[in-house]
Structures are given as structure tokens and as C-alpha cells.
Amino acid sequence: MIKLAIIGTNWITEKFIDAALQTGLYQLSAVYSRSEEKAAQFAKKYGDLILYTDINQLLNSSVVDAVYIASPNSLHFEQAKQLLESGKDVICEKPLASNYSQVRTLIETAKAHNQIIFEALKSYYLPNFDRIKSYLPKLGKLRKVLLSYCQYSSRYQLYLDGQNPNTFNPAFSNGSIMDIGVYPLNVAVALWGKPNHISADALLLDSGVDGHGTVLMKYDGFDVVIWHSKVSDSCLASEIQGEDGSLIIEHLSVGEKVLYKPRQGELQDITALQIDNEMYYEAVKFAKAIEQRDIDHQGLTYSLISAKLLTEIRQQTGVIFPADKLS
User: Fold this and answer.
1) Does any domain span residue 303?
2) Which strand (E) or helix (H) includes residue 269?
3) Which terminus of the chain has a lower count of CB atoms within 10 Å, N or C?
4) Residue 246, class by beta-carbon neighbours within 10 Å (0-12 exposed, 13-18 middle, 19+ buried)?
5) Distance between CA atoms of 78 and 45, rounded to whole angstroms?
6) What is the pLDDT of residues 253-272, one digit of tens each?
7) What is the largest CA-CA distance in the chain?
């Protein structure tokens, strides 16, 4: 049983805890928050947990094997690095860190200390992602791909009202490409690797982060267009087009539904059954990496490529984080 601690007391942390406990592979042991009140309020949902408000207490804890990090993006690097150096395995919400340099350092640190660093990019590990991969050969030569994730942020009105929520604040290494554009980007990387060329455009808000944008990734014989937005909603599915057929994916980040359309044939629903809490699968994969001490798991390759691309995209669109100046 993996003794788990969490950093971050928000809805996504609750969802991961529920998924982790559902696997039967974890025991929730501790909660870390800079606010003792928040830690206590969060912990009471899960019984008798140890509360930490000092990161050093967590680093030196004997009742914690692994830590799930769901703090603001800008805090991921320092927290994960300290935990790895103290002998804890780490699963960290996407993006793994603010830029490529930080991600590379985290991976080097994990390997140097024989620890697991794992980016919680749930899309990789879904049964419907496996279904997509298994059907790609049926499409023939790929030609066009559209991967779309556009979701109006619940925090956008706060921003318009003159407040400064984390999700639109460069100090927290946030914005559209880092928050939700990372999903389609990582799907493309996991399916086809590093593109031959990438170009990006975005609308920058006055705060300095991107509200929405478009990314073009060119591969041999086909291209991938990514639409991402935190200031508009979309019901448009993603699509992978080949000479012999196409795949249509609804709600790409969770693999809600997958359809296959042969060029000369009927539309087929090929959706695989999935557990409702899609974070279950990443929790299982992380547990297996811990059990096998797989410090060089495949996800690290994806994380490095994606971090390099995210950094390049921000350089092209003019989004600069304070963390970039420290790396």
C-alpha cells in the first residue's frame, strides 16, 4: 500500500484522491497546505490524517511514500524537486513545471535519487486513448488532424471584473496553452512524437497570458492544428483524418467518445468502457511505476518533448513567466 500525501486542497485533488483510493493501491496519510485551516477542513472528509503546514515536515515524514502535487503551476518545480531529493516519489499535475529547463532538471533529479517523477496527464492512460492508437493504422496515410479544447473559464469573469485570479496570472505560470492547450498538445506528442516544425499564434490578455490560441504542428505528410481557449466554449469534436478513414474524438482530454468512419463505410462507435473517474488510470500507472521502480518510464519522454514545445509556443506568442528568468 502506497502511503500518499497531497499538496493542494482543491477539486482536482479530491478527484485524484477518490481515484487513487478506488484503485485499492493507496492509503491517504497526510495533507500539506500553507493554511492549517484549509488543511484541516480538507482532511476531515477523509478521516484521521496528518496535517503539515511546513514543507520540511512533509519532506522528512516517515508516513509518506509518494506525493500528489496540485499546487499552482509556478510552485510545481521547487516542491517536486525538494520531494525527490528527500526520497519521495512524485505525481504532479500538468504542466510538470513552468518551462523546459525546469522539467529537464526534475527528471535529472529524479533519476539521480532513484525516485519516480510522473506527470499527471490523464489522457495518455485512458482505455479510449489505447483505442485511438489501435485504429490509427486503419486510416491509411494521415493527412489532417484537428485537436480542439476550448472551455470558457469559470475565473474569466473575475478577471474581467478587475481581479487577478491565478489562471490568468503569469506569476503562476498559467494561461490557455499551459492550462488546457497542454491536453491536445500532449496527445499529439504521445501519438506522433516531436513535430518537424511548430508555429503558434495567440491572443494575449492585458495580464500577459494567452486567452486563446492556435498551434500548427507539421509532421511528414500531415499536419496537426490545435485550438485552445479559456475565453470561449466549443462543442466541436477533434478529428484525425487519413486517406482511408477518420477518427472523431469527443472531449479529447477524457476520451468521452470515439467514432471511426471508413472512407467508404458507415460511422462506427468504437468507444471503450471507462471508469467514470478518468484519473483512475493515471493513478494505477503511477502505482505500477513505483512498484517496479521504473524511474525511466515512457511518460518522461512525452513530458520532455511537450515542455520543449510549450516553451517554444510561449516564445513565439510572447508569453513570459517570472519563472523563465530564474531558469
Assistant:
1) no
2) strand 268-269
3) N
4) buried
5) 28
6) 999 999 999 999 999 999 99
7) 62
Which regions of the chain are under pLDDT 70?
327
169 touches 131 (CB < 8 A): no
Q: What is the phi/psi pair of residue 123, to 5°?
A: -60, -35
- Is residue 157 in some structural domain? yes
Angle between helices 73-85 and 100-112 (to 10 degrees): 20
pLDDT value of position 25 = 98
DSSP string, 26-48: EEEEEEE-S-HHHHHHHHGGGSS
Total residue count of the chain as it appears in this document: 327
Measured CA to CA, the distance from residue 259 to residue 167 in angstroms comes to 33
Q: Give φ, ψ of 114 to 5 degrees.
A: 55, 40
Please tell me whether the overall predicted TM-score, pTM, comes out greater than 0.85 for this model: yes
> What pLDDT, on a 0 to 100 scale, did the predictor assign at position 39?
83
pLDDT tens digits, one per residue of 207-219 = 999 999 999 999 9
- What are the C-alpha distances in Å from 87 to residues 61, 110, 111, 113, 128? 10, 9, 11, 7, 34
Going by C-alpha positions, the residue among 266, 242, 325, 304 that lies closest to residue 100 is 304
Q: Are 121 and 94 a contacting pair, CB within 8 Å?
A: yes
Pick from 114, 84, 99, 95: nearest CA to 311: 99
| Residues 36 and 103 grouped into a single domain | yes
Q: Do 25 and 174 reside in the same domain of the chain?
A: no
Measured distance CA(67)–CA(84) in Å, rounded: 10
Residues 117 and 133 in one domain: no
Q: Is residue 30 part of a domain?
A: yes
